[in-house]
Request: fold
Amino acid sequence: MEHFTIATVAEQSPDFRRVLWTGKHTQLVVMTIPPNGEIGEEVHEVDQILTFVSGVGQAIVSGQERKVAQGDLVVVPAGRKHNFVNTGPNPLVLYTVYGPPEHADGAVHKTKEEADRLEEAGKDEPPTS
Reply:
């Protein structure tokens, strides 16, 4: 059994992205977006569910915009263009579940720049089995 006090784990992670757990069909990831930062506009071939732990931001999914804050949950179906932007003075902290996994098992990306670089280099691929 894996057990996480997820809000606490997410709040304690200073990393842009940290994979906490990877299963055959899903993956649990915590993210911290710094003030004035963003995840970056992207499209995944997997479904994604994001739950916001602290901070405030803007969710943009398929051209629709909505403010997000602690306790909000946003579903991004596969194939939808999306971005999440920190609009507040504090980090925007969240955890997300991908189905199936989207990132390398155990991946830790300290910054968005590092995450982008590793993705572009093909070094952030999900497990194949």
